[in-house]
Amino acid sequence: MAAIDAVTFRGIHVTPKTNWCFLEVRTADGLTGLGECTLANQEPLLEAEAARLAAHVTGEDARQRNRLARLIPHAPGGLVACTIVSAFEQALADLAAQRAGQPLHLFLGGALRDPVRLYANINRGANPRSPAGFAAAATRARAEGFRAVKLAPFEPLVWEDGFTEANRSAYAEGLARIAAVREAVGRDIEVMVDAHWRFSPGGAAALIRDVAPLGLFWLECPVAEANRAEIVRLRGMANDRGMRLAGAETLAGLAAYRAVVEAGCYDVLMPDVKHAGGIEEIRRIAALAQTAGVEIAPHNPTGPVCHAHSVHLCSVVPNFLLLEVQFGETEAFFDMVEGEGLRFVDGAATLPQAAGLGVRLGPGPHEAWKRMDRPWLDPRLG
What is the pLDDT of residue 382? Predict the structure, then answer.
């Protein structure tokens, strides 16, 4: 029987800065599907939404994922609800591939590439957070075979705090961090910068001019996603200086991405399998983007389950560019799961060949999630 017996939320504390959250969906015949629903600082809401979902779907046929895991854009619940739906869809896809006796990428129609090219997000692995600390993290990534690295160098700058000395100092420090990374890795490694929506349109324009000599591969999320006209203008400025503009990592559903694709906002879209609606919704988003010549580089800076799903997904998307991975934050990324290994090989991920996702959460012990009273991310930035 494919009836859903249980939907279980598991929040796990992995570093002083980080909790990872997962959904396990168990069926009456003993199979378990796995999805990830990490959303920083929202663990109580995620757990409550998972319980609501469990009450709704227990007893349903897990094979009916098109009906059970639909993301309805206008439904209440916001990104928390979308994240739980996304994890549920991942888990149902895992179950379906297990039942078919196929690895998930084959169940999705077959891989277009193996291995999947990765880039190293060095942000949480940089310690100290000085220019030298970022440069050292980038050097470690290069030594492990990565050909592209990304940093988010501008905390604590938030433009709404005003034209203050603190913001001016944070901006100067951010530029120094980027320059140190570029010098450390040379010109044959791609460097990307995540601005985390910290800038006004005018500030972002100045940023593009200031980083142009450093030859960035892309600039990510310079301004709030709602400022589509300004994003289009900034994309033109970036393109004129030889860099892509990337973003849209926290949007959910095809309709939300339609608006940014039709407006011409980005060269690279970054849907996250944890938030955008799951695997099938991202395939629809990618198909829409492909019609406009837009590349796909999924957002993937969290745990091993999101990573495993993203690897399968990226192998089947024609307009795939690069896949993000957390680099140097914690060995729990590799040790928390059992099954096929997730170790990076020369900056790439090989496709799992076991039926389904290919990994499962290990027995632990796993420490339960902890409240972050002083969170890593400024809560004003999403």
Answer: 58
Residue 221 CA from chain centroid, whole number: 13
pLDDT tens readout for residues 25-58: 999 999 999 999 999 999 999 999 999 999 999 9
Residue 56's CB is within 10 A of a number of other CB atoms, namely 11
Q: Does the domain formed by 4-101 have CATH 3.30.390.10?
A: yes
**What topology is assigned to 106-357 in CATH?**
TIM Barrel (3.20.20)
Domain ranges for the chain, please list them: 4-101, 106-357
Largest CA distance in the chain: 64
Mean pLDDT for all residues in the chain? 96
Q: Which two tokens stand for residue 34?
A: 């796995």
Q: Convert the pLDDT of each residue in 128-164 to its tens digit.
A: 999 999 999 999 999 999 999 999 999 999 999 999 9
